[in-house]
Amino acid sequence: MSDAAFLGRLAALVGEAGVLAGAEAEPHLVDWRGRYRGRARCVVKPASTAEAAAVVALCAGEGVAMVPQGGNTGLVGGATPREDGGEVVISLARLRRIRGIDAANNTLTAEAGCLLAEVQAAAWDAGRLFPLSLASEGSCEIGGNLSSNAGGVAVLRYGNMRELTLGLEVVLPDGRVWDGLRGLRKDNTGYDLKQLFIGAEGTLGLITAAVLKLFPLPRSRATAWVALPDAAAAVELLARLQEDCGERVSAFELVSRAALDLVLAHVPAARDPLAAAAPWYALVELTDQAAGLDLGASLEAALAAQFADGRANDAVVAQDLAQRQALWFLRESIPEAERREGVSIKHDIGVPRSRIAEFLSRAEAALAGAFPGTRIVAFGHAGDGNLHYNLSRPQAEANRELLARSEQANRVVHDLVAELGGTISAEHGIGLLKRGEILRYKSAVEMDLMRAVKRTLDPRGLMNPGKLL
Fold first, then answer.
1. In whole angstroms, how large is the CA radius of gyration of the chain?
2. Strands (E), 240-308
3. Among 109, 142, 140, which Cα is nearest to 126's?
């Protein structure tokens, strides 16, 4: 079928406005970081599950490969088409309805194109909390969150998208629709099929809707920015807080001084909350569903013990909403500050949190020997062991030399991560960026199982080819 005829059939399915080509398609052809750029026959934007299924069936019938795309905020090139221009990008942005909220069952059913912030707001309006929280929540979409098994800052208490999802609706690679939109906590009627599609980066099907877990709204909250002498002190503080406060510990973010310095340099509204600099900081938040609790007192008591033992240098506890937002603004501005600073070698690693301090110490020593003059910007979700560990040099020429040796730098970091029982991708996924890397760190048996699943659901390899596997 000619391109013109193919585009005409797509337009007949979704309307002329739902098929983009040329300049209109450009934003969908490059990833958020600008690292990957591809070409596509077109971008098609179905407005319903039925339209999405019809588009997939047409592409499958013509042997045309498809690239599912959400908000295009991914960091590993997982939603970017290849350079050959033969694929169709399927954007879910028009599937944007909140289909329903069952407050008694604590569930919300949302279509894949809903922005994360829209889902959060809908839950809040119903007196509930949807706890997934990311810096990109104003632009990332639920379908992308599901396809990448998004984590964010609240995993410590609520888990990532696997834990937050009860049911899915998926268009399979041949155009059939699997309706698994069940809001059940218990269902032992066979394989838990939804887990195949969560975290699969669009390689097994097109997620069109999901049943998500909701929780009671927090009515008491305490937030603190804590200066620490080292990363080991952060792990000790987290353990102490969980012993004293249990599940009230909702977030525990680790920030290096290098990361904070970038924010202060590149984000005009940012202010250092403490008078003296420290090597590390923890952003800690306690929440509770009961109103009127003085969680600040609990937090201050835990911090007092750390001060007495010399395991904390200083701290500020937010006294109102504005102060809390200012502290979170510092943490959430780190990725944008790094982007403004320039290109770096980025790692999204995870280790058992008991090994965080060891990883940071050993990695720094190894990199200092192999790549002298390298600046390490480390930050992340210490509560679940996920660190963003990024390498650069301040001078442009020195940084270009470092970037040219990315593969060797990755080997230093990833080999140590593997030795410590960790993962080379804790939340960003594999996409294009780490396809080769996973072959070094997953067993042959594990890779064979993954390929077998792919062959079973997508035997012709039409769904997001070249990604993940």
1. 23
2. 249-256, 280-288
3. 109
**pLDDT score at 175:** 98
Q: 348-350 and 314-317 as β-strands: parallel, antiparallel, unpaired?
A: unpaired
How far apart are the C-alpha atoms of 288 and 272, rounded to whole Å? 28
**Which sign, positive or negative, has the C-alpha torsion 82, 87, 89, 90?**
negative
Q: Kindly list the averaged pLDDT for each block of 10 residues, start to end, along the chain of length 469.
A: 90 96 94 90 98 98 97 92 95 98 98 98 98 92 97 94 98 98 96 97 98 97 97 94 93 97 96 96 96 91 87 93 96 93 94 97 97 96 95 94 96 98 95 93 96 98 95
Whole-model pTM: value is: 0.93
**Length in residues, the chain:** 469
3-state secondary structure of 77: coil
The candidate with the shortest Cα–Cα distance to 434, out of 425, 442, 443, 426, is 425
Q: Which of 242, 260, 243 is nearest to 251 (CA)?
A: 242
Coil, strand or helix at 142: helix
Q: Which residues pair with 385 in a beta bridge?
A: none
Q: Which one-letter amino acid corresponds to residue 254?
A: L
Gap between the Cα atoms of 41 and 20, Å rounded: 9
The conformation of residue 218, written as its DSSP 8-state character, comes to: P
Q: What is the rounded CA–CA span in Å between residue 244 and residue 15?
A: 58
Residue 325 carries which side chain, given as an amino acid letter?
Answer: Q
Helices (H), 319-427: 321-332, 334-341, 356-370, 396-403, 406-419
